[in-house]
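Pipeline run #58 for the internal structure catalog. This entry was flagged by the ingest filter as a single-chain record with no existing model, so it goes straight to prediction. Upstream metadata was stripped on purpose; only the residue string is passed forward. Reviewer on rotation: M.T. Logging verbosity set to normal.
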Amino acid sequence: MLIADSGATKTDWRFIDKNGKIYSISTSGLSPLFWSGKEIAGEIKRKFPKTLLALVKQYKSPIYFYGTSCSSKQRIKIVAEGLQSIFPKSKTIINHDILASARALHKEEKGIACILGTGSNSCLYDGKKIIKIIGGLAYILGDEGSGAHIGKEFIKSFLNNELPLPIHQAFIKKYRLDKNDIIDAVYNKKHPNRFLASFAKFIHEHLDNLFIESLVTKSIEDFFEKTVCKYNGYKNIPVGFVGSIAQHFNSILHTVAKSKEVYISTIISQPIDELVNYHTHK
């Protein structure tokens, strides 16, 4: 089988052959908000080894694709068109990436699953299916706690001259961006969410600065208030997190969770290997 977990920035693929050998591939994030079916097919052709493409076609392998923004029939259709143009004889099962997180974090047990990566989202999972989703409004309307949201708040502070002077100067020295560069990247170029999230590494490097720590804490607090704390009985339900932001800012994540009386059961950087276990056992 072929399994994919596609976030906004990166897609992790695993192919399991008939002997149980696992192949790993990485492509760009294939969000149907930003990619057409033709573009998705082109990315797969570019990044997949030809021998692996041949194996998937040879076995007519089922494809389990979990993707960001795969929450409507129209968007699922875009991804399906891309996959089926490359693997016309394979059965494709396409689900939202929040289900991937739920299965990876909670297996077949009840829990709240959260994504804190380039974007953010959350769901209530009963061990079999998603009961409720809160969040997932993307980088303009939501994505609190995500790399894009933290990056956006940081960039706003930079442009409004609100950063501490040493941080402001370090940012200019490293990135050499001015207001026009930033406005162009956010409003005119592709993948502005990735652009904003790209500053998360710099932010993490300066986490010992009180201003930066407060900025990140506020973003994660907003995530809890707008998502986790809206589920009935959330204090008595295990909450798991996936994503690079959850992993790298885990100390702040735990502090905020404790203040909200939330029990964090698991934090993992990516769900793909747990998805392999889930599907091979199934």
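catalog note: The longest strand covers residues 10-16.
catalog note: Residues 210-226 form the longest helix (17 residues).
status: ready for reviewer M.T.
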